[in-house]
Amino acid sequence: MRIDKKTKDNLITYGIVVAAFLLIQVLASTGHLSSHMKGLLVPMTYYAIIAVALNLCVGILGELSIGHCGFMCIGAFTSAFFSKLTEETLPGGLRFFLAFVIGIGFAALFGFLIGIPVLRLKGDYLAIVTLAFGEIIKNVLNAFYIGYDSKGFHFSMKSQMDLGLEPDGDTVINGAMGIMGTPHDAGFTVGIIVLLISLMVVLNLINSRDGRAIMAIRDNYIAAEASGINVTRYKMMAFTISAAIAGAAGVIYSHNITTLTASSQYFGYNASIMILVYVVLGGIGNIRGSVIAACILYLLPELLRGLNKYRMLIYSIVLIVMMIVNWSPKVIEWRKRTFGNLGIKKKI
């Protein structure tokens, strides 16, 4: 049976992820993986997932968004809130599955609602508005105090004392202190499975009729509309799916830590820019490149902490090399000759 080039390209992408997972499992089982490195594996997977989500929006749809950390934050908090409430009533597997669905659902809902006004904008204006959305979500969650007792849920935006909980009550979201004691349900294996599902969704969308319509809008908005393509519908579809995948990354993040806070380190402006760097250096529109860039650029600074004096120098050199590999016309031409369509990246 002959496999077409697109299917072969997709299978190679899945194969790289599976091969990396098996290699890491072998290293871990033989004791060649340090505890520090093991701690970096789950963050590496959710950064790769959100890089895939952002590349769908920036590379395939052609809309610059800097607010995907906001969708990740929504997925993290809604899923952690559900898991905290049902920790003693539902078994772990079912609880995490439902939390995963809830996190994705709320992120997709907010993506749809935000997309209605935002996708009418273009270029820098859209980037500024999505950035503002991410900051608003983070700051609003830092002001929430939610608890429950025998009388039901209590809500406040002042302090924990204003909740007025009964002695049997418990605070779920404690303002800037976030959610404490989230069940540890997400590990490296779960992260890899979610990454593979995200890749399947995005790659199948790209190669579908809907994906071709989305890329037609990216290439020429006016020509696509003149051809009868429902521009609003397809833009909303891509943006909502992208937000949902970012929410999935948030679910993995929130269920891998003990205390979830809406901090700037993980959901702020710098985090959004860092993810955008993963997308740009991996190749805009190159989904596989986003995964590889996210993994390398996340792990590299952590692995170079021992070389503290030269860490930033080495990191800068790697950034420059990746930019040359992904953007230099001569290198791209060489990749086309050597690897055929495996190295071609789509351009906006």
Architecture blueprint of SSEs:
Layout: H1 5-29, H2 35-60, H3 68-85, H4 92-118, H5 123-142, E1 145-149, E2 152-156, E3 170-174, E4 179-180, H6 188-206, H7 209-219, H8 221-226, H9 231-254, E5 259-260, H10 264-267, H11 269-282, H12 287-303, H13 311-327, H14 329-339
Antiparallel strand pairs: 1-2, 1-3, 4-5
Most strands sheet: 3 strands, antiparallel
What is the H/E string? Answer: HHHHHEEEEHHHHEHHHHH
Number of strands: 5
| CATH level-3 fold name | ABC transporter involved in vitamin B12 uptake, BtuC
> How would you classify the helix and strand content by structural class?
mainly alpha
Number of helices: 14
Overall pLDDT: 84
| CATH class category | Mainly Alpha
Helix content bin: 55-70%
What is the beta-strand fraction?
A: 5-15%
CATH architecture: Orthogonal Bundle
Quaternary: single chain
Low-confidence stretches: 341-348
N-to-C span: 34 Å
Adjacency order of strands in the biggest sheet: 2-1-3
Q: What Rg is obtained from the alpha carbons, in whole angstroms?
A: 21 Å
Globally, the shape reads globular
What's the domain count? Answer: 1
